[in-house]
Design goal:
By secondary structure, this protein is mainly α. The chain has one helix at residues 13-142, and strands at residues 6-7, 10-11.
């Protein structure tokens, strides 16, 4: 606290006025500083609110991206399962068709083998009959009657 000198009617007026002016200047400086700090605080609050909104937006975007990623993974798994199932069905169908075709070929081979045996027997019979005719011709030519 500042000490003032005494005069006849009290404190020195000039010192008191100077002190009051100094207090007013300091108070005005403090008020300006407080206003500036208040404005800075408001600006920082606005920035903070802006960043909070950005954070919220980013969190929402991240959640949507994770959800989309999960959906893509789920759909890929389903598609994979469908492709594997179709491949197994096609493989089974192809194997069954091949087995049926092999069975048909085997049956045709057996039929051809039977037909070949029948043909050989008939050919043998025909050849035996023809040999008998040839033998008869020889007998007829030798026998002059």
């Amino acid at each position: 606290m500042e000490k003032f000198s005494y005069e006849a009617n009290g404190y020195n007026r000039q010192e008191v006025n100077q002190f009051v002016n100094d207090v007013i200047v300091q108070t005005e400086g403090i008020i300006k500083k407080c206003k500036a700090q208040g404005e800075a605080v408001e600006k920082l609050k606005a920035e903070l609110e802006h960043y909070k909104k950005m954070e919220s937006t980013l969190q929402t975007a991240i959640l949507k991206a994770e959800e989309t990623g999960d959906n893509i993974k789920r759909m890929a798994r389903e598609e994979r399962e469908m492709i594997v199932r179709d491949a197994k069905n096609n493989a089974s169908r192809i194997v069954n068709e091949a087995l049926l075709k092999a069975e048909k070929i085997e049956n045709n081979a057996e039929t051809l083998e039977k037909n070949m045996k029948i043909f050989k027997r008939k050919l043998k019979v025909i050849m035996e009959q023809q040999m008998a005719v040839v033998d008869e011709i020889e007998l007829l030519e030798l026998d002059p009657k």
